[in-house]
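Appendix B. One record, verbatim.
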Amino acid sequence: MLYTFPDDLMQAQLDWYAVYHQLAGAEHESQTTVLRRTLQRLSVRISTHPYWASLPGSVPAARMELKQAAWQAVHEKTGPRARA
């Protein structure tokens, strides 16, 4: 890992994956509306986090590393059956 992500940013990405997983299994339209709104709020929180302004290099590369690190953490916690 080339980057050290703030805890709140990593947690927001982990939450994003958890909500996405819930959305994939949602059965009722009322559930999907709430979950989609939650995903939107998390996406905004992640993309506008002040951490990105502090990077001297490529933000897209750092963003992908954040996704990969969070996905790996989710996978280790829930096992190989987890999908986002």
